[in-house]
Structure formats: C-alpha cells, structure tokens
Amino acid sequence: MFLLIVAIFILYFIFSNSGDSSSNSQRPVNSNSHLIDIHGSFHDGFYIEDIKVYVKGPISTYEMTSDYYLFAFGPGELKVNNSNAEVVINLEKTRSQRIVPANFFINKEKFPVINKQGRPDFSVIDLTNVDVTKTLCYMLDELNARDIDAIVIDVIFDYMTKIILYNMLINNSVITDYSIYSIEIHKNHYFNLLSTIEKYCNIIDKKLESYMGNYSEASKSQRIKQLLAILELPSDIDDIVTIKRQYKLLAKKYHPDLNHHSEQKMKEINLAYEELSELLQAS
Q: Of the four listed, 1, 32, 59, 282, which is most buried by Cβ atoms within 10 Å?
C-alpha cells in the first residue's frame, strides 16, 4: 500500500510539472477564437526573384487555404526596393491595435502622412488621426511623379492595401489577437473569413477610387495657402525668412502670459509654422 501511494504521488508530480511546462511554452487561446500558426515572415527580408524586388518588414503570413494567405502587420520599418528605387514606410501601432504609417521615404526624401481631415501631417501627434487609405493615395501620387518603377509601385500598393484590410479585420473583431507566432480569428468569422475579406476588399477599392489623385502638388499648394492664412500672411509668400519673422511676431502677440485664453491659438500657430516649414523645404 505504501508503494502504491508513493507511485501515485510520483505520477502526480510528473504530470503536474509537465502541465506547467506546456502552459509556459504555449499562449492561452480564447475559447471564442481559432488559432492559426505562422506560415512565414518578412522580418529578415525576402527577395522576390521573379520581379527582382526586395521586401523587408514586420509582416507575418498565415495559411488560410492552399492558395490564400492572410497577412498581419506590426510596428517597424517596411522597406521595398530594387536596383533603381527604395521606399521606406515607418509603421506604428495605435492603442486600438491598428497599424498606420507615421511617415515614408522615397529614395531618402521624406514625406508626411495624410490625416482624416485630408491634410498632410508631419508631426503625427495623434496616430489615431492617420488615414491609411488617403495616405496610400498620396504615396501613389508621389511615386508616379518621380517615375518610380511600376513594379515597385505595385508592391507598395499591394502591401499598403493589405495593411488597410488588416486594420478592418482588427476594427471589426475578426482578428482577436496577433503575435509574430500566431493569429486568432473569432469563431463567428472563421468559416466565412474569405467572403468577409472579399467584402472588405470591395470597400477598400471604392475608397481608393474616390480618393485617388487628390493629394498631388495641387493639394500641397492649397495646404500651404491654408497655413499661410493661419500665420496671417498673404497666400503668395514663399520666403522662409519672412515666414519665420511673422511667426515670432505672432508668438509674442498670442503668448498665453500676455494674452489670456490664447493657448489654442498659439498651438495652431506653432503647428502651422512647423508644417509650413517642412512643406516649403520639401518643395
């Protein structure tokens, strides 16, 4: 009897320890979700041989069917380049887990994102105000204006639309959790996921069609006029020295210590001067 008790104790000790070990190595899965393990990643870079384009970034892929892969994204630097061009997009994660660009570079030239109000945003104080679809349209305008290879533009378009799709899946709780090793799909969406994705892709296409071509040089010129108006300057001023002098005058005029209830006005002036300086330097 004593040996039997000892044997039971040993077996209990072994199995309880093995259970603890497995729970430490595996992430708990929500009972309302289906877990899909990672298929591949672009974290270390990937050369697409047939089109001769190199892609590197915080991208993971998950096999849904034999011919469809779901893409998920994290914060970090997304780089696409070939022998003639390099495009770098700096991605950030919002509090709601969306992935948005903070800025992008075309052959080392820096560009802002477009916010939900349709304006260029260099500082990106509020990531939730970045509009990824509008930013993509602006990005395409700038890429085409610089005669970047069509194949590079196609790759940028492909990955940016995948980011938009990923955000829609996050916003609508289709994707309930994500790590670089696995992704969780809510059980209510798992079996009709492909039809859900098709529906979202149609929405993305319509948005892109409505925004395309709105963020070219004409839009930039209009924004400069808006910023000059905030700084109480004529719309044809483009001299940075004159703008800086006017900014200093307004900073004194609307300083909160001298002019009560002017904090908001001073904030608008500061942001306008910062954005205008960057826009004129990029011209």
A: 59
CA–CA distances in Å: residue 176 to residues 40, 169, 229: 20, 9, 45
Which residue, 161, 32, 110, 127, is CA-closest to 281? 110
Helix (H) or strand (E) holding 282: helix 263-282
Q: What is the pTM of this model?
A: 0.70
> In the structure, how many helices (H) and strands (E) does the chain have?
8, 14
Domains and CATH numbers, the chain: 33-211 (no CATH), 217-282 (1.10.287)
DSSP-assigned letter for residue 173: T
Dmax (CA) of the chain: 99
Listed in sequence order, the residues at least 6 apart from 151 whose beta carbon sits closer than 8 Å to its beta carbon are: 51, 52, 53, 82
Residue 41's DSSP bridge partners are 60
* Cα(55)–Cα(38) distance, integer angstroms: 18
Measured in whole angstroms, the distance separating CA 59 from the mean position of its chain's CA atoms is 12
Residue 91 forms beta bridges with which residues?
76, 101
> Which residues touch 49 (CB under 8 Å, ≥6 apart)?
none
Grouping H, G, I as helix, E, B as strand and the rest as coil, residue 109 is: strand
- 86: buried, middle or exposed (CB in 10 Å: 19+, 13-18, 0-12)? middle
**pLDDT tens-digit map of 162-219:** 999 999 999 999 999 988 789 999 999 999 999 999 999 999 999 998 888 776 665 6
